[in-house]
Every structure is written in C-alpha cells, then in structure tokens.
Amino acid sequence: MTIRPHAVGLLAAALTSNLAAAQATGSSVLAEYDLNAPLRSYTFHMDVAMSMRHFPWLHFHMNGDGVYQRGNQYRVTFTGGPPFMPQRHDVDLSILDPSMWPGRYRYAAAGQQNGDTIFALEDASNTQLKSGTVALNPSSGIRWVDATYDDGTHVHMTVTSNDALGYLLPSSIQATVDYPHMPVAADATFTNYTLPH
Q1: What's the predicted TM-score (pTM) here?
Q2: What single string gives the DSSP state of each residue in 99-139?
C-alpha cells in the first residue's frame, strides 16, 4: 500500500487539531478550578516525616521553606535530611497548582471520576516529568497526583487543602515515593502561610 504525501499531511493536521482541541478543553476546564485567582504570591513552611518501606526501616524528618509566585515558581527548599540526600535541595511543587501548568506541561482533561476531573500531563519544559495524572475537584481543589519521572521515580500524593489566608491552599500531603531501589512513605504538612509585606 502506498501512502500519498497529501494523506500524511491530512493525518498530521488532524492529529494536531485533536491535540489543540484537547488542550483548549483542558484550559477551559482549568479555569473553573482556579479557586485562588487573586492570590499572586506567598511564603510557607513545610515539615516532612519520611520512613523507608523496607529494611532498615529508617525514619527521618526534613524541614523546608517555600515560595509561591503565580505563573513563575512554586517550590520548597529543604535543608538537612538523611545522609543519602543533598543537604540542601529544591523541590518543584508546580504540579500542585493548575495555574502553573501552562508552559510547563502539556495537559488535557481525560475524564471524570467520583466528581473529580482527571487531567493527563506530560512534560513541556524539561521538568523531568514523564507522565502525570491529577484529580481536581470544584470545591476542594487538587485531590491527588500520580506522577512518573525520567529517572524512574514514581510518586503518588493525596492532597488535603484548607482555608489559609482566605484561600484554599494545601495543608497536608500523604505520599508514597518509589525512588529506584528505595521506596519511602512521606507525610508533609504546610504551615506559616504568609503574604508579602
């Protein structure tokens, strides 16, 4: 069978059109879940209790200070921690805030589940995300995240949000983190939300 050049062009155009339509649908749905639109920036503190899920069953804590700037950055900088991790390192939390997705991820609404809208995400800006799935709820915001990264790490997070500074912001995360050869469980709490002076 011979595939004619114009047929290939039509197929490519159709695929591009479908992707653009999915992205547009995702964007319009995201707008409905932007519960913190007026909030431009804040800082916060994060405490994480981690435990290994196999021998030698080590437990350890990390503390970090975070910064949020809408459309620019959402990260926490940890200091200290176990000896096998850098003593100072940043963790990007952009996947937790849909307003941070444009430019970072390709995303599209993928369906409904238990009242949540499910989004499929892929990397668009060297974030090291291989693939991700996020559940958003119209009243409680982000519910859970399931993400796989280029280095093989798999993370599943259940997110609880509550009122802080008059907005709906994360208060805790329960996570399982499967680093290559080292699975851990993590419980994180967000405190000390502060608006800039």
Answers
A1: 0.82
A2: GG-TTTEEEEEEEEETTEEEEEEEESSS--EEEEEEEEETT
